[in-house]
């Protein structure tokens, strides 16, 4: 089998495996698995024997298949006989004992990744709590005081929200619009409030609830209502 045929065959096989795992593109596969496009290309051209064990384990996990099945799909009979051990050691081939060893390594790495996720989540929570510390300590008291004194000006509570605002900034979140702001209606970034009326792109609308975006990704559209239906409250 020449390299061109190998590439097209492996590409079709990988697309099938991606479809089963509901992965739509090589970019998405690379992002989810943490395997570079360069490594994916090595897989496609038949160089699986030169790929590291860690890389293959990541691919197998992302594609929701076993390491043995991944090897069987992209290794020819010759490569299975002559394959260099996927870790840093060499071997004359991949037999059942070696596949069992690789499976054990895979399970061990999977356990390590799970532990790392737990550690990262804990570190993330601790970092977030440090930013929110003043709010956590002061907000319950401020809320209790506000319940006992309905005449308390709400503006006095606004400084307590600052830690939350700072945390959102650290996460790269930006507000889309300002409450009360009049803007040109754009369905991509704005959502009409239910029952507020209709608007065509370009019509004047007022922002009622801000939206949010993170970098180039839109998280929430700003909720708006047509200006011509606004009433002075």
Topology:
Layout: H1 3-20, H2 26-33, H3 37-44, H4 53-63, H5 67-74, H6 77-82, H7 96-131, H8 133-148, H9 162-170, E1 173-176, E2 182-184, E3 190-192, E4 204-209, E5 211-214, E6 217-220, E7 222-226
Parallel strand pairs: 3-7
Antiparallel strand pairs: 1-5, 2-4, 4-7, 5-6
What does this entry look like structurally?
By secondary structure, the chain is an alpha+beta fold. The chain is about 50% helix and about 10% strand. It contains 9 helices and 7 strands; from the N terminus they run H-H-H-H-H-H-H-H-H-E-E-E-E-E-E-E. The strands form 2 sheets. Strands 2-4-7-3 form a 4-stranded mixed sheet, with no helix packed on it. Helix 4 (about 55-65) packs across helix 7 (about 95-130). The model is unreliable at about 75-95 and about 230-233 (pLDDT under 50).
* Major sheet: 4 strands, mixed
Percent of residues in β-strands: 5-15%
Mean pLDDT over all positions: 78
Q: Structural class, from secondary structure content?
A: alpha+beta
Number of helices: 9
Gross morphology: elongated
The strand line-up of the biggest sheet is 2-4-7-3
Q: What's the alpha carbon Rg, rounded to whole Å?
A: 28 Å
Percent helix:
40-55%
Quick summary:
The protein is α+β, with helices and mostly antiparallel strands and 233 residues long. The protein is built from nine helices and seven strands; from the N terminus they run αααααααααβββββββ.
């Amino acid at each position: 089998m020449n390299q061109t045929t190998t590439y097209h065959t492996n590409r079709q096989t990988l697309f099938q495996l991606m479809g089963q795992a509901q992965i739509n593109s090589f970019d998405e596969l690379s992002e989810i698995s943490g395997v570079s496009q360069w490594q994916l290309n090595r897989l496609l051209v038949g160089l699986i024997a030169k790929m590291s064990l860690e890389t293959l384990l990541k691919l197998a996990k992302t594609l929701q298949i076993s390491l043995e099945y991944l090897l069987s799909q992209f290794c020819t009979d010759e490569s299975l006989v002559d394959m260099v051990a996927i870790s840093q050691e060499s071997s004359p081939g991949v037999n059942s004992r070696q596949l069992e060893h690789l499976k054990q390594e895979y399970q061990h790495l999977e356990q390590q990744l799970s532990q790392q996720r737990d550690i990262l989540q804990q570190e993330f929570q601790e970092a977030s709590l440090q930013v929110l510390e003043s709010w956590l300590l002061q907000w319950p008291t401020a809320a209790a005081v506000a319940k006992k004194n309905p005449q308390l000006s709400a503006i006095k509570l606004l400084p307590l929200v600052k830690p939350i605002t700072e945390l959102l900034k650290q996460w790269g979140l930006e507000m889309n619009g300002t409450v009360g702001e009049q803007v040109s209606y754009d369905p991509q970034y704005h959502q009409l409030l239910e029952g507020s009326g209709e608007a065509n792109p370009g019509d004047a609308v007022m922002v009622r609830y801000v939206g949010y975006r993170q970098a180039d990704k839109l998280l929430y559209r700003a909720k708006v209502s047509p200006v011509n239906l606004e009433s002075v409250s």
